[in-house]
User: Which sequence fits this backbone?
């Protein structure tokens, strides 16, 4: 394994672990506001946690593809575009949920 593949795989594991912590209620302060009454809705916490887990799994899959030689620059660009678009969609959804 190259150093880049190990880095991507390690990052994927960290993102999955963070997603699990968010999803199952240990790190909700990462997505909460600054005050004690700014706790997000449970559906928002679930969505952000699940999304984070899926991004970690997708990144892990990209690490495997990188290791096997299947991850081209074009695939990485497409993966990045999907992640950026989905982050924007998640932010819009959270803001609409927050507004009522």
Assistant:
């Amino acid at each position: 394994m190259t150093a880049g593949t190990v880095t991507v795989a390690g990052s994927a594991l960290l993102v999955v672990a963070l997603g699990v912590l968010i999803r199952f209620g240990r790190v909700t302060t990462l997505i909460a506001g600054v005050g004690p009454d700014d706790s997000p809705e449970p559906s928002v916490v679930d969505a952000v946690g699940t999304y984070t887990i899926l991004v970690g799994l997708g990144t892990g899959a990209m690490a495997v593809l990188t290791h096997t030689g299947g991850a081209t620059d074009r695939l990485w660009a497409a993966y990045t575009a999907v992640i950026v678009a989905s982050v924007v969609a998640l932010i819009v959804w959270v803001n609409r949920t927050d507004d009522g």
In short: The helical segments are 3-23, 42-68, 73-99. The chain has a mean pLDDT of 83.
